[in-house]
Recover the amino acids of this structure.
C-alpha cells in the first residue's frame, strides 16, 4: 500500500517498536538495549511522552532530549532530526539519517551532531525548532533520533508540530472500482488520499448493490499528501445485470489531547457488470446459436 515515493521508501529504515504504530514516544529501558531517551523537563513540562508544539511561521523555540546510558562503557551516538512517514504496513516511521527531510527534519537542529554518554550517566542535548517565514499552515510529524555509528538500531521521540494558520482536514476517495468474480463474491478497491493539511485516519464502509461488506478497520493515520490503497471483499452479492459499489469514508481528526473528532463523510461509487465471463460467454454463445438457427430457418422457408 504505497504511501510515499519509491525514493523515500528506499531511504527509510524501520525504527524499533518504540517508534512504531504505538507512536513515536520516549523509549523505555528494555532487555538488551544500550541506551534510553526521554524528553527534557522544562517549561514545556516533565515526563512527556513526546514533543508537541504550536508555532507560527517564522517562530522559534528550544527544547531538549535526555539520553541515558545504563551500560558500563561510554556510548557515542549521532543525534539528528527527520521527517515522519507512514509505512506500507501502516506504521509511523522516520526517514533514515542522511535522507532529505522537507519539514520537521529540516527545521529542527540539535545543538550537536553527536554525543558521548558516560557509563551509567545521562546527557541532555538541546535542540532548536525554527520555522521559515513561508512555512505552510497545518500539521507535521517528525522526530529527534539517536543512533550509534554503523548500527541500524535507533531510539527517538516523536515531534508533532502544528503550524499556525487555517487547518483544512480533507480526504478524497480516488480510483473506485468494483470487480465481480461470480458466485456472489465482489471486490471493491479504492485509494484514500489526504488532500488537506491535517493528519487524518479514515473510518470506512463499503457496500455493493445494497449488500454491506464486513467490518473494515480504520485506515492508519495519513500525513498530508499520503495515500492508502484499500481492497474490500463483499460476499452474498446478487448477480444483477449491473452492480454498484458505494464507498463511504469518514475522516477522523485527532487533536493534541488525543480526542478523535469524526468529520463529514466522503462518498464515491463505481459500477461493474454483475455477471462473470465464465457464465456469460456460454450464454452469449447459446444466444448466437439460436439466432443463427432462426435465420437459417427463415431462409429455408423463403426458398420454398
Amino acid at each position: 500500500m504505497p504511501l510515499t515515493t519509491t525514493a523515500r521508501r528506499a531511504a527509510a529504515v524501520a525504527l524499533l517498536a518504540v517508534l512504531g504504530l504505538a507512536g513515536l514516544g520516549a523509549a523505555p529501558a528494555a532487555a538488551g538495549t544500550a541506551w534510553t531517551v526521554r524528553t527534557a523537563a522544562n517549561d514545556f513540562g516533565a515526563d512527556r511522552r513526546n514533543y508537541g508544539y504550536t508555532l507560527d511561521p517564522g517562530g522559534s523555540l528550544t527544547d531538549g532530549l535526555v539520553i541515558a546510558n545504563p551500560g558500563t562503557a561510554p556510548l557515542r551516538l549521532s543525534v539528528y532530526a527527520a521527517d515522519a512517514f507512514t509505512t506500507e504496513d501502516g506504521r509511523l516511521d522516520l526517514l533514515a539519517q542522511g535522507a532529505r527531510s522537507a519539514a520537521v527534519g529540516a527545521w529542527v537542529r540539535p545543538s550537536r551532531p553527536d554525543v558521548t554518554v558516560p557509563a551509567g550517566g545521562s546527557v541532555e542535548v538541546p535542540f532548536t525548532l525554527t520555522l521559515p517565514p513561508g512555512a505552510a499552515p497545518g500539521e507535521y510529524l517528525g522526530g529527534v533520533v539517536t543512533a550509534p555509528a554503523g548500527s541500524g538500531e535507533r531510539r527517538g521521540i516523536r515531534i508533532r508540530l502544528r503550524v499556525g494558520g487555517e487547518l483544512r482536514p480533507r480526504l478524497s476517495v480516488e480510483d473506485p472500482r468494483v470487480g465481480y468474480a461470480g458466485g456472489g463474491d465482489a471486490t471493491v478497491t479504492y485509494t484514500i488520499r489526504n488532500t488537506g493539511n491535517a493528519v487524518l485516519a479514515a473510518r470506512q464502509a463499503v457496500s455493493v448493490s445494497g449488500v454491506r461488506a464486513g467490518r473494515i478497520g480504520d485506515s492508519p493515520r495519513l500525513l498530508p499528501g499520503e495515500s492508502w490503497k484499500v481492497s474490500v471483499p463483499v460476499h452474498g452479492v446478487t448477480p444483477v445485470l449491473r452492480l454498484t459499489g458505494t464507498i463511504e469514508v469518514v475522516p477522523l481528526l485527532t487533536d493534541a489531547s488525543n480526542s478523535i473528532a469524526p468529520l463529514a463523510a466522503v462518498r464515491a461509487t463505481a459500477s461493474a457488470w454483475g455477471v462473470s465471463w465464465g457464465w456469460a460467454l456460454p450464454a452469449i454463445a447459446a444466444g448466437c446459436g439460436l439466432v443463427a438457427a432462426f435465420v437459417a430457418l427463415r431462409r429455408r422457408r423463403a426458398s420454398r
The first helix runs from residue 6 to 11.
